[in-house]
User: Fold Exostosin-like 2 from Anhinga rufa.
Amino acid sequence: RHFHFCKLPGRVMGIRLLRFTSVVIVVLLLVAGALTALLPTIKDDKMPNLRREPKAQSQSALDSFTLIMQTYNRTDLLLKLLNHYQAIPHLHKVIVVWNNIGEKIPEEMWNSLGPHPVPVVFKVQTVNRMRNRLQNFPELETKAVLMMDDDTLVSAHDLAFAFSVWQQFPEHIVGFVPRKHISTPSGVYSYGSFELQNPGFGNGDQYSMVLIGAAFFHSGYLEDFQRQPEAVYALIDETQNCDDIAMNFLVAKHTGKPSGVFVKPVDIRNLEKDTNSGYSGMWHRAEHLLQRSYCVNKLVNIYDGMPLKYSNIMISQFGFPNYANHKNKM
Amino acid sequence: RHFHFCKLPGRVMGIRLLRFTSVVIVVLLLVAGALTALLPTIKDDKMPNLRREPKAQSQSALDSFTLIMQTYNRTDLLLKLLNHYQAIPHLHKVIVVWNNIGEKIPEEMWNSLGPHPVPVVFKVQTVNRMRNRLQNFPELETKAVLMMDDDTLVSAHDLAFAFSVWQQFPEHIVGFVPRKHISTPSGVYSYGSFELQNPGFGNGDQYSMVLIGAAFFHSGYLEDFQRQPEAVYALIDETQNCDDIAMNFLVAKHTGKPSGVFVKPVDIRNLEKDTNSGYSGMWHRAEHLLQRSYCVNKLVNIYDGMPLKYSNIMISQFGFPNYANHKNKM
Assistant:
């Protein structure tokens, strides 16, 4: 049919049309030129979100990131972390996702101890949900999101380096905690870490997910998360778990590559013991790991396939912390 | 002027032309469609050479590499290395660049000790030149080239991993030996390694070159090397040095990014001491390093600018050699 259209001109061609044809050719060239000029850059290509950028962005918003931290039942820890993270290089804003339903936010106290170098926005939630932190917050003005659990401390140096790595891999989740799924002969997937290995896999190890509790990723993915099947939200709410696994599925589907890039942290700590609330993280629940294997299999059903891919790339900073870390001292 | 052309149809428009215009629109859509279909993939985009692929390539040629090794005056070492490298995974062919002018190649002996798993081609040269190894050899059928100095041994494991990294960074030189240039207030560049540091540079170190004496790179760059300014060849021949620096300039100019990706080797060795020829590598010459700084400055003049960019990314294999190498033990 296309071909038929293309032939038409030949049949109705007249003198005027000849002149007109030259115009057509010029127009075609112009269109070709225009389209070429419009070729997406590599990053755009991987990031449709970059093209439908929702907000005007200041320069600083382009080379900086927003810290999103969800908190529940550990306000003392939260305040410690807010202080720790106030002066990270390239930090544009902090968004605190307040899951302490009905509890007053510590904004007054926070402000009374100001001034603070970076603005902190408290987002009061109406329901305590794991996936509250995955909203496309209007206050979010940067392309880069740093998401941190409210019990995890990563050194400023690790964060600055990981951000520079993310800028080179903006379509990936660039973070400090790798995990993997493995296939079993039964066809059921299992979730885990170094203790699991795919049968017959050679030297070394692999990961297929990078957890978002300590990672950089593109804000466009928060937008994409709003357009997932209802069953995904139901699964996350039912388990109060697995939002990070779902994000890795989403990114892997979007890129067709491994979802994450693992940056080896020099100094990462869990501050859980420092809280006085006595509350300890969800991952201590007996069913936590079982749930995560359950989620992997559920998500494979929902998305009708396993999008996660393996990577064995580990990135460290050349010459840091010791100048000769490129010399092998195993 | 373009705009003027676009308006023309409006003026000469008639009934027939109206019908014709719809055809034009369809044609435009077809062109748009075609152009979209022709959008380069990321790798093609970085690698024009992929598009003007000179030779038909077997599947194995696509997921394998060619080892190019230049040798001079250390045939005993060469034979050792040929044996070492015969069974590397994904090795498609070995090309030996024979710089021992007038000397017989050891092909007979090599064949008498066959069969060998991988074909070895001896390329007899007429002049002993450093840049002989940078020819676009007709025997080269793979996209990936592994170039090794004739005194360097890298473990099969490191090579297999680095090849997998190269497949993810095909427009870069992926190798095991990082170097850098630094700027001085005088405007003169200096060449070196960890002992040099840019003034006021923060934590850690950087590199701006990856030497091709132990690296993977795209065969298209050998093609590109044939189209460099004469002055580049003259510089390399005059110094019998710096061909690797020139390649880094070429790649950096081509990509607009850092030329190299540094893979931290687990086991790399210099076998120089194992030769009976008593001959030791060019890099022992007193003037070697001075020449390399000299070359950097010359190349900046020839290319009218400094294309080299810094990187501080160091890639290791996750979980190898020890399963917990992602845990920090500094």
Notes: Chain B touches chain A through 60 residues (CB under 8 Å). The first strand of chain B starts at residue 65 and ends at 71. Residues 65-315 of chain B form a domain with the Spore Coat Polysaccharide Biosynthesis Protein SpsA; Chain A fold (CATH 3.90.550.10).
